[in-house]
Fold this sequence. Notes:
heterodimer, A: mainly alpha, about 0% strand, rod-shaped, B: mainly alpha, Rna Polymerase Sigma Factor, Chain: A, Arc Repressor Mutant, subunit A, 9 helices, globular, disordered N terminus, binds zinc ion
Amino acid sequence: MTCREFIEFLDRYLGDELSPAERAQFDRHLGVCPDCTNYLATYQETVELEQKALAPDDAVPADVPEDLVRAIMSTIAQK
Amino acid sequence: MPRSARRFLVGVSFFVPLHPAEASTDEYPGIRGFSVRRAGDKSALVTEGLAADADAALIAEARTGCPRAFEQLVRRHAPRVHRQALWILRNEADAADVTQEALVKAHQKLDSFRGEAKFSTWLQRIVTNLALMKLRSQRRRPEASFEELLPTFHEDGHHTRSVSPFKECADLEEQVARRDVVCRAIAQLPANYQEILVLRCVQELDTQETADFLKISTNAAKLRLHRAHQALRTLLAAELGVDP
Ligand SMILES: [Zn+2]
């Protein structure tokens, strides 16, 4: 297996969509390739960071200031 | 609270929950995502159901052109919309602008809201897209082409450049800075790659739902998502990678 193949199918590897034989090939490649090992780790970190950056949270914030509500309503009224 | 965290909280004071019992996460306002979430209890689900019914009634009324009904929707949802804008933009003035823009847009597009997602989720997607657009407009460096952000290989299939790990993230201040880097990097991605990340992370669609929404095959959705992750990894490596 080459690095190119490893990276191309990395999402399938992480999504557990490979056959046991294919999986074993990936694991063997990881055993001998520090670049792909680092790639795998940083790819997974990237996915986690995306989630942290974008996912809305469940905390209940306090009300927004009255003037913001008024600004929104007056913009709508003008349209 | 460490000074760094306090500095970050300037301008978000009105997001302190009114009653401690209302807070669903253990965290400082504005630095969520780095804290443990509590599992929702049954009463929270009941409340959520009632809230969805109330939204549906208000949306129906607002569609008939009733400004009072839309104002109620604004009062119910603007706090979370604003919180998401502030989370991404980290600037009070920009967050207020984008909150206003998002709710005005929601009003214009109210007829296209079909209720497959919760109204709050639909709003979060609108505000996230607008906040990322705002970040994109503030960027300083010229844009790299998307192809340049994908990994490259020699003819024999090996990486052309060695791959380094990301730096360890030492403290809260670094986590906050890192999140900022991530938001700005996402904002740099071409629109269709940004969109698929927003659908997955904000609207929490799975692969099949994402493919249906975008009207593409599941394989195309998987490939687009994989390429988005790869491109973002490259952008992050430039900022977070250890020196080779
Ligand atoms: Zn490799």
